[in-house]
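Before the break, one more example. Copy the sequence into your notebook; we will annotate it together after we see the structure.
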Amino acid sequence: QVQLVESGGGLVQAGGSLRLSCAASGRTFSMYAMGWFRQDPGKEREFVASITWSGDSIYYADSVRGRFTISRDNAKNTVYLQMNSLKPEDTAVYYCNAGTILTMTMPGRYWGQGTQVTVSS
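Here is what the structure looks like once it is written out:
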């Protein structure tokens, strides 16, 4: 069983930055990929970024590539999302995700509760 807890969301002006963190807890023997999805009311869930356990494979949505950076610290069971040059269209609830299978179209098994990111014009 795995629990994921996000933090770091908030309100920022366009062009600003935020860093999201997701801490995993619970006894785990598997080496999970971890990533982030986001969703606004009335819109489909959108893949943002993911990283494999080893960190050797990283994927970004086209909409965030070059602005967001995903990283992880396996010793702390934590994944991070550094978000720079934020735009109003980045406004959403951001959800941490983890699993043995985690792709752009197939999320991992475990989800965090979400953290709100709001970017003002």
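The radius of gyration is 13 Å. The chain is about 0% helix and 50% strand. Try to locate both features in your own notes.
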